[in-house]
Amino acid sequence: MNNNFPCNGGFCFLSYSQGYFFWLYCNQSLQSVLSIKSIKALYYFMLETPIEPKQVASPVRSTFEQYQDPAREFDSQTLKYGMWYVTHRLALYQALVFGLIVISLGLFGFAGWRGWQEVNVALNDQGRFNKNLRTFPDYAQVNPHFTPLPLQIVNSVVFAGGTDKYDLVAEITNPNPRFLVSFDYSFVVNGQTTPAEHTVLLPGEHRPVATLGLTSATYPNAPELVMQQVAWQRISNHRVLDTAPWQAERLNFGVTDFGFTGQGGGADSAIVSFALTNNTPYGYVAPRFYVGLYNQDSLVGLLPLTLGHFPSLAVQKIDVRSLTPNLSVSDIKVFPIINVYDNEVYLDPEK
Length: 351
Known about the structure:
single chain; alpha+beta; Immunoglobulin-like; 3-stranded antiparallel beta sheet; 5 helices; 16 strands; 24% helix
C-alpha cells in the first residue's frame, strides 16, 4: 500500500509491505530530516487505515457444448459429433482395415477349402468323370423346342411311264413347324441305287419326291427311299413369326380349266391340261412343280413341270402328257418345289 503526505517542501512516499515501512521517494527540495514524532504519526495513520485484499474473480470455464453458432448453420450437438469423429478418426480407420482383412482371409479360406474338395473328388473318382464324359445327352429330350423331329415317309410307290420306264415316288412330311430341311435322296430298288437328287422341304410341308423315268427291264418292287446329307435350318421368330400363313401367302397357286384326255384314238399318251394362276404378290424365276394325278383321291401318277418367269397374277396355260397305260385322272394337284426362304427364287419388283 502506498501513501503520500506533505514533507517540508515536497511529498514523500511511504510504502508498506508485510509489516515494514519503506521510504520510497522525496523530491529534491527536501532539506530537513523527519523527526521521530513524524514517523510515529505516520505509523499510527497507517494502522488506522485497514488494508483490504483485492478480490479477484475466478474465470468462468466454458466448453464447446455451450457453443452457439451466430449464423445458426450447425448446433452444439453437430459440433460434438464432429469433435468425436476427429478424435477417433484413426481408430475408425484401423477398425475398417482390420475388418476388411478378416473378410478377405475368410473368402480366401473358403475358396481354398472348396478347391481342395474339388481336387480331392476328381482324384478319388476319376472313373466316374471319364464315364460322364463319354456319355452324350439326348438333346431331343432335354429341349425339343430346338431339336427337329425326323422326316416322315408316308408311302413309296412305282408308276409305269412307258416301255421299260418307271417313276419311283415317295410322299414325305416335314413335321417341324420351324425347321427347313435340305437333303439328297435316292431309291434302292432290286438291289440297285438310283442317282442322288437334291431337294428342300419347307416347315410343315407334305409333298412327293420322285425319281422319274427310271429304266428297268423288270418291274421295280418295293422301292426304298434313302436320304443323305440332311441339313436342318431353324427359322427364327425374328424373321418369320408364324411360318404357316407366311408360306401360304407365297405358295398360293390356283388351278382352273382342268381337262383330261385318255389314250385312245391312236394317241399313245394321255393329255392333262389346265390353267395355272400365280395368286401371290411375288414373281418367281423358273419355278418347278410336281403335278399329281389323282383318281378318286388316290395318287396314280406324277408329272414334272418347269416354267419360265412367272410374275405375280400371271396365268399360264399348261398342257402335259403321260405315257402311263390305262391312266384315268379325275383331279390334279400342283405341288410347288420352291424354297420361299431363298431370295434368289423371286423376280425383282417391276419399276
